[in-house]
Amino acid sequence: MSTPDSPLSDLCTICHIQPPKYRCPRCSIRTCSLPCTRRHKLWSQCSGVRDPAAYLRRNELATEASFDRDFNFITGIERSIERAGRDVENRGIKVGENTGYVEDLSVVGLEDEEGLVAPEQQDRKRKRGPPGAGNAEGKRPMMKGEAAFLRRAESAGAKVVRAPKGMSRNKMNESRWLPKQQALTWTVEWITGDGQKTMRTCMETSSIADSYDRTFPLPKEEKKHNKQEDEKSEQKTLEEQPQEGTVQDQPSTTEIPAPSTVALPDGQPETSDANAQPQQPSAPSEPLEITSHRDVYFYLHRPRTTTKHPVLIPLSPAMTITSALRDHTVLEFPTIYTLSDSPDAILSSREDPRYILEEEYIRTHQSPEESSEDSAEVQDNQLPPGAIDLADVDETKVLEVLTKDLFEPTTAA
């Protein structure tokens, strides 16, 4: 306890009431309690952390306290290095072999620091530019074979959104371009109705049903039963086909109708039959029917939506991976849901939906840009109040009235 006769040097430097108990490691200010210590840090803008480069006298070096400070400083550096190594491994940052240089400095925010780049990396930077300079997006450098994969995916009509480097979805993506086969192989994520996820690579030319069968193979007994049923159905169709003898012989000659002349209206030139090439209407390709395969329906997941429910696009089992991804966006690789509910069943459950179809999402979640464009078109077609539509006004009459007003002499009042 302090006495009325105690000097100020023996009391707390903040409150000047109690004797000091603590000493600041940074500036050696003595305080009596935690509130006084916090007040000291606030008033003096002191961090409270000891400065390892602070000057010490020679007689202060060979002390236990000095050895403890040095030991804590060195062990702190070791812990920081270990923590940085674990962070590098967890984030997937590539580091040069047998060196302490980081290959991709943009990951750690040091792309402008040349002193931290390995010598071979500096040479490549001078000659060929920084790694990934050919990347138009500028987000992260291209991996080996990634540019060819993205070009092929773009030519096939699929838009691939790349996840940030080191993210789990980026690490799981094994999609690549096979130069020998001249085909893409996609990493497909299959999600069942109970939420189970399965990853498997599939060729772009394989159908959705075949890819699903390879990912979730049937038992041997069920395979054998299905094979027998297929053979029976094929034999039945062959029996129902008519025999060759019942087909009527077609005549060997066909009559060619004479070219008929058509009366053209005046002012239009006549065209000969040789020059006239009528365009035959191309038969529109019928969309594949959305059916079930092994009692499940297939849906492509649409990423980056504004709703909390997954937005799904129905797929036909006979579609190939390429046709299923055409004009659609995927995040690194496609995600396909295998559900027992049909598209009609998903549409009927609007009150408490678990999933949303794409057509319903587009109808109910129209983007503001589209709505503003629609409103702008309507405003352009509508006339402002008080305006007159001059589409049916004769220009010659207007010109006559203007010439009369300009060139006829006016009578003075």
UniProtKB/TrEMBL annotation:
GO terms for molecular function: zinc ion binding. Keywords: Isopeptide bond, Metal-binding, Phosphoprotein, Ribosome biogenesis, Ubl conjugation, Zinc, Zinc-finger. The keyword Metal-binding applies. One of its GO terms (cellular component) is nucleus. Residues 12-46 form the HIT-type domain. Residues 243-255 have a biased composition (Polar residues). Residues 219-239 have a biased composition (Basic and acidic residues). Residues 112-142, 210-290, 364-390 are annotated as: Disordered. One of its GO terms (biological process) is maturation of LSU-rRNA from tricistronic rRNA transcript (SSU-rRNA, 5.8S rRNA, LSU-rRNA). Residues 272-285 have a biased composition (Low complexity). Required for box C/D snoRNAs accumulation involved in snoRNA processing, snoRNA transport to the nucleolus and ribosome biogenesis. Interacts with FBL, SNU13, NOP58, NUFIP1, RUVBL1, RUVBL2 and TAF9. Interacts (via HIT-type zinc finger) with the RUVBL1/RUVBL2 complex in the presence of ADP. Belongs to the BCD1 family. This is Box C/D snoRNA protein 1.
